[in-house]
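In line with agreed milestones, the collection of sequences with tokenised folds has grown. One record among many is set out beneath this paragraph:
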Amino acid sequence: MGSGGGFPGLVVAAILSDLQPECKMILIEADKRKAVFLREAARHMAISVAVHDARVETMPPLGADVVSARALAAMPTLCAYAQRHLLPGGTALFLKGANHQAEIDDATAQGWRFDVTAHKSVTDPDGAILELRNIQHDLG
């Protein structure tokens, strides 16, 4: 979601093309120029990727096993996007910086519930990759 310059989407797609070529990779990027870049980069890398130049919130639900986002939105918004596009039992991976715990706290304060595992970033000593499962929103 919000694939931008292709990280981590194109990187993951390249790895999956070798390890699990049957896996379908979808990149969503609202900026049409960036979407064109993503298509062209995938073509040059000879990897199969579907690129949608649309806003993630307007896309029909994708029924994905895994969704990811980096520098797209705050946690409450990401939770809404993930819940919309994930299959039951799916996983969301969000790359977050030093304030990741505050973002988790903000999301839970806004009624979001999830199981979260924070994996320490190897590129940012204060950052984390947040692995969310069982994303639900309390409506009341």
